[in-house]
Amino acid sequence: MVNAALCLEVSVRTMGRILLLACLLVLVPAFAWAQDNLPSERDLQARADDAARRQEYTAAVMFLETMIDRFPESKNEQVFWDLAKFCDTYGLDYEKAVRGYRTYATRFPQGRFIKRFQDRLSYLDSHRSDWPVLKQLTDIRNPREKRPAEESIQLAEKLLADFPNTTLKFDIHFWLAGQLYKLDKQAQARSHLDQAMANLPADGKDRALRLQALDLYAKVAAKQHDYRTALQKLDEIRSIDESRYGEFKATIDDMRFQQRSWWAFVASISILAAAAVGAVAARPWREKGFARKPVRMLAMLGLTTLLTAGPWGLLRAMGERVPTTFWMLAGFGCASVVFLWLTASVQARIGRKKFLALSLLVLVSAVYAAFYVTDMAKVFVWPLEELHRHG
């Protein structure tokens, strides 16, 4: 009986050892095979790229994070750039973006993205409490949504109304100003810029933001013909960062030229208005010579039309597009001729030479005003601009 029990125990132990050996013989190669068949870094990158093409950004982020965790010795910096694009730029997960930025700084302290990533890390840390607002703003600014510009602007303004105490006031106002500037709503853009600059961060790290705001402010002011303010903003950029003077020198010169052109246009309109008031005040219809023959009037209008057709023919010969506002030039010309015809009898009072001088001044003013408000100026003023720029 004892011998039978002993034999059974020995048999059980032997069978256990055999089974254990069999498991080892099967599992060890299987584990090694599984290790050999784990996706490589290149495979994971391909999967991430494919997911991004299909706009499955969550899956793309998962593959990118797997690459970062499994290959800590990799020199591939682009992985972190793609992770930042999805998690930060697209606003999928700011926590993962922060973790990625810190990992990048540890692995690549001299990397090509280090400055941008450090700036973004500082930005996200400073606005951590407002991440939900930042997420909404990111969605509004996202060009992939393909919303109409007006709808995006309304959403941003609603965001400001819903979160009046957000730390992202500068970002929202600045983005709104840029969009309104593109839509040529300069008064509203300037209002948002004023509010943006009033909400610049008070931590002393606002230099880059201030430069961006001043640059846009100068452009908006120039669109409003407020060249003095525009030049002041550009000078302020220069005082903040002298190294950027060369970048804005051409812009400053061009803006000063535009300023002088605008003053000349205002002077032209003033001359025309003064001439009209003076003509009415002179009451030319009381003069005996006021009535003219219609044939002479038609001849003068015909001559004006021929002179007006000159620039049109020049444009066609140069192969340039004829501006849609071209006939404004003809309108100014004809109006000047009619005006001079009506006031011709006044020369008896002021003298022929004075009348001719005033007539020439009125014609020059009318022509300049026409050129200023039409695309014709781009063709005829271009040589003057080139002469001004190159001396």
Verbal overview:
The chain is mainly α and 391 residues long. It has three domains: 41-126, Serine Threonine Protein Phosphatase 5, Tetratricopeptide repeat, CATH 1.25.40; 132-240, Tetratricopeptide repeat domain (Serine Threonine Protein Phosphatase 5, Tetratricopeptide repeat, Alpha Horseshoe), CATH 1.25.40.10; 260-390, no CATH class. It is built from 19 helices and no strands. The chain has helices at 2-36, 41-53, 57-70, 78-89, 94-107, 114-126, 131-141, 149-162, 169-182, 186-198, 207-223, 227-240, 245-282, 294-318, 327-343, 347-350, 352-373, 376-380, 382-390. The longest helix has 38 residues, at 245-282. The N and C termini lie far apart (122 Å). Mean pLDDT is 78; it is low at 26-36.
Would you identify the regions where 5 or more consecutive residues have pLDDT less than 50?
26-36
Mean pLDDT: 78
Strand content: under 5%
Outline, from the CA principal axes? Answer: elongated
Order of helices and strands: HHHHHHHHHHHHHHHHHHH
Count the strands? 0
Structural domains: how many: 3
The biggest sheet amounts to: none
Task: Tell me the number of helical segments per DSSP (H or I, 4 or more residues long).
Answer: 19
Multimeric state = single chain
Present the secondary structure layout.
Elements: H1 2-36, H2 41-53, H3 57-70, H4 78-89, H5 94-107, H6 114-126, H7 131-141, H8 149-162, H9 169-182, H10 186-198, H11 207-223, H12 227-240, H13 245-282, H14 294-318, H15 327-343, H16 347-350, H17 352-373, H18 376-380, H19 382-390
Helix pairs in contact: 2-3, 3-4, 4-5, 5-6, 7-8, 8-9, 9-10, 10-11, 11-12, 12-13, 13-17, 14-15, 15-17
